[in-house]
Amino acid sequence: MQDVKGSSKSFPKHETRHVSEHKNVARCARFSLDGRFVATGSSDMSIKLFEVSKIKQMMLADARDGPVRPVIRTFYDHSQPINDLDFHPQGTILISGAKDHTIKFFDFSKTAAKRAFRVIQDTHNVRSVSFHPSGDYLLAGTDHYIPHLYDVNTFQCYLSAHVQELNANAAINQVRYSSTGSMYVTASKDGSVRVWDGVTAQCVRPIIGAHGSMEATSASFTKDQRFVLSCGKDSTVKLWEVGTGRLIKQYLGAVHTQLRCQAIFNETEEFILSIDEPNNEVVIWDALTAEKVAKWPSNHIGAPRWVEHSPFDAAFITCGNDRSVRFWKEIP
Description:
- This is Cleavage stimulation factor 50 kDa subunit.
- It is found in: Nucleus.
- The chain has about 325 residues and is mainly beta.
- The protein has one helix and 29 strands.
- It has one helix at about 50-60, and strands at about 15-20, 25-30, 35-40, 45-50, 70-75, 80-85, 95-100, 100-105, 120, 125-130, 135-140, 150, 155-160, 170-175, 185-190, 195, 205, 210-215, 215-220, 225-230, 235-240, 245-250, 265, 270-275, 280-285, 290-295, 305-310, 315-320, 325-330.
- The chain has a four-stranded antiparallel β-sheet, with helices on one face. Strands 2-3-4-5 form a four-stranded antiparallel β-sheet. The chain has a four-stranded antiparallel β-sheet with strand order 6-7-8-9, with no helix packed on it.
- The radius of gyration is 19 Å and the shape is globular.
């Protein structure tokens, strides 16, 4: 991760299209691991599931066979707004975490199913969910300051044992497993980012004040698990070395102080994407040089609340307060 000045890559041009609209604020989005599906969750308490190939077909100018409908399922089973979503790593299962204190399991292989087939009742507002790569465990980040670890088969909930030493008392905005499940990371409302051991559930690397006293709104690992990318309401995006907790890079020049802003890698991890709220733009940096290489109008009315990149494709999703879901893909 040495500093390489003056050699920033240019981010390829993308085209964007409004692909669907919720009845209320579109709050979150998530792609499946293989990039075939993407889901969005809303304040209207519904979840929309899209087939990515159908979105791409819809974006082709000559849809000769009439309109293409990319939404293949809509699920209604929550009684409060949806905060986060995740796909089972192997199966056709989608989970959602919501303000109604539940995590719900939906099987999207069944065409008629509108409701969840399993429900985990948590004690708190479920702000974030993440499947272990095995699919046997899932993490919930909630208004409670410790991540809740669930056994998917028994619904048993496990908490970290040594929480007194944590010196934590703030809600968790995001929780994400690493690619092998050997670690997970949390971003908290008190501005801290914490790395946890995936087996012992101990906090192994607390980065207190990662975003000063402002909320840390997102945190995720690089694919090689050596770094964590975090975003905060202090209008910074930061790259941390997991082994030492050292700050390696800062990505500046995008203002985000209001929403639960995400900072994400593109599929090759060469670029980082986030949102500039006052200018209503998608901002892109070269991950290595930390130089801003693009800023594009979001095409949303008001800044997007969420940006999520495909793990597989040169494509991403934005969604927001204007209820709109937009798909972006590289122009070939």
